[in-house]
Amino acid sequence: MISYEKNLFIIEMKHSSYVFTGGDTPWGVYWGEKLYGEELGYLVGKREHSSFDPDLNRHREEYGFWDSYNPLESCLKVNYPATRQLDMKFQDYTVQTEEGKETLTLRFRNSYSPLTAEVIYEVYPEFDIIGRSMRLVNEGDTVVIENLKSAAVSIPHQDKYRVRYLSGRWTGESHINDHYLTNGAFTIQSRTGNTGPHFNPAFALDNGKADEKSGNVWFGLLGYSGNWQITFERTTFQDVRVLGGISNFDFSYTLKAGESIRTPVMTVGFTTGGYGAMSRTLHAFENRHILPARKTGRVLYNSWEATLFDVRAESQKELAKRAAGMGVELFVIDDGWFGQRHSDKAGLGDWYVNRDKFPRGLGELITYVKELGMDFGIWVEPESVNPDSDLYRNHPNWVYRFENREPLEARNQYTLNLSKPEVKQLILDFMTKLLGENRDITFVKWDMNKTLTDVSAGNTETDKELWYRHVKTLYEIWAELRSRFPHVEFETCSGGGSRVDLGILRYADQCWPSDNTDAYSRLAIQEGFSYFYAPRIMTAWVTDASDGDGRKYERPYSYRFHSSMMGMLGIGADISRFSEETLEEFAGYIAEYKEIRETVQYGQQYRLSSLRESPLHAVEYVREDGEDIVIFTFHQGFCHDAVEPRVYPEGLEPDGVYQVEGMEEKLHGSTLMKAGLETGLGGDFDSRMFRIRRV
Ligand code: DGJ
């Protein structure tokens, strides 16, 4: 419920309250466990320290228009020809209610030129989550924006402030990091034009004592797939403010009369239940409010690691026949089906079917796959181009480039300037042709394999808008394709997990979290991923991943499957060389996965034990109705004399009675949760899946 009383805005959610002041510069009074927000007036008053700090409440500003004074990072800073400051006055507010959501909009108006800022709070009371954003509407003089943030939030005073966040790199994404705030600013960001592999736009903040099961955690995710920034500022007065939005780096945006711009949404939330509750809340929230649809994820086969660029009708048919025999539901061909794309050196951008590889067109393979009872999916990378392609030869000026230098080539490719209408049209046209002529394509893997560089179209006035325009156009293309082809599901991939955020996930059904498909490495990557993103989003393939870099990684198939069954199971191995026995083994695991996938994809996830703290890795999933439970356990190397680890389930009804598969006796939930289960793990890279049903 949202109310406004005695100059206080009070947002009451299921378990939490969020309270801030009204006025021209609203500031955060309280955010945390539920209380009587309307009583907090006694905390509101002028806070000043000296002529150096005349207004300490500005350290807790909810948004922050730069009006000539603001000692912290501000959310909006503009330039008019005659002045560089804003004079925003609070006008009014509205509250709108719809199913599961209330929206509070505060309106501010600039005093000297009609410019309206709508500071928006989309409140999801069931989830204790608020989506924060700002919309700027210009009806006056042309204004140049040089700093545009989504929101700021203040954290109540704590003894310590620990920021937990994800960082990594290609093939090593989503690793968990902790940073303790000292006085000053700490920033995680991307300046590579994409969400990026180095940091993910998400954080969890606590007092250093939260764990999986308990503790106050304030968390946030920015929904933006371009240059972004999340800054944590701890002042010398112990105020802590978190601010997120589009990066200040090389950014400016001109807003003319009649134009408007809306920031990305920064989703923030609070829980008393530690990191585990944070993740479960986010997973359920994403499934309900972010992802385009709720659909049971299909088991897919992807031929990339089996055939690389050598995608040919005949060999793909062979793979398809075997995949169908195993129970695969969706057969996806990857890079290499088009143009003269025989390696990563040529052909990217030439979106016609390669007739040497597909003499009778794609239709033949699609029909074959459909007759085998599977759906068909395809890979594309529309934003990029190889210099050795017809597209580039015909339109060298369609790529980002500075006039005085050749653009940087990485993976032998350049990036197309999406803000050019002809480029957007080209992408929409070829995708529409591909999906329109082949109505049986029901899955698209959209890849993007290069960091954005040389972001210029030769106009120093408007070039700084290009970073933003790239992302905006990308979202427009995805939205348009989804509306033209509602039966098609999309996967976001960027050389693995470089484009995973709540912005693209409004259009994507799932993502490819990493090119690292080693089942052991994946445990850490998947754990980090699970902090902020739902298992339904996370594709995980079982592959050969044994000698990719010339070394051998021995992982039994059981271990590989269990690791991949913790999200959206896929197969990426070269199944053409498999024996009948191995094919049968794969078929067995796939059948097992289909039995548990509803529990895994949409259930409540509990990280029972992490490799970061123990040799045992264990993750549990409880189906939404609480009737079906799955636990995956992993151990890497067992010494002869090691003590066999036990696993302790969570989230069961203490007085409910449960049947553990393979055990004779039925046990109460409290027994299972308190006494635990023997894992029976031993040897190298052992794993075990437990199935428990409520009786
Ligand atoms: C990077 C992706 O992450 C891989 O899965 C694969 O699609 C290649 N690109 C293809 O070039």
Strand content: 25-35%
CATH superfamily of the domain at 47-290: alpha-galactosidase from lactobacil brevis
Structure ligands: (2R,3S,4R,5S)-2-(hydroxymethyl)piperidine-3,4,5-triol
Low-confidence stretches: none
The helix content, as a percent range, equals 10-25%
Give me the CATH fold name of the domain at 47-290: Beta-galactosidase, Chain A, domain 5
Note down, in words, how this protein is organized.
By secondary structure, this protein is α+β, with helices and mostly antiparallel strands. Among the domains are: 47-290, Beta-galactosidase, Chain A, domain 5 (Distorted Sandwich); 383-439 and 450-487, no CATH class; 608-694, Golgi alpha-mannosidase II (Immunoglobulin-like). The chain is built from 11 helices and 38 strands. Strands 6, 7, 8, 9, 11, 12, 14, 15, 19 and 20 form a 10-stranded antiparallel β-sheet that branches. The protein has an 8-stranded parallel β-sheet with strand order 28-27-26-23-22-21-30-29. Strands 5, 10, 13, 16, 17 and 18 form a 6-stranded antiparallel β-sheet that branches. A hairpin with a 2-residue loop joins strand 1 (2-5) and strand 2. Helix 6 packs parallel to helix 7. The longest helix has 23 residues, at 580-602. The protein is globular and about 80 Å long. The relative contact order is 0.09. The mean pLDDT is 96. (2R,3S,4R,5S)-2-(hydroxymethyl)piperidine-3,4,5-triol is lined by residues 304, 334-335, 379, 447, 449, 493, 495-496, 512, 515.
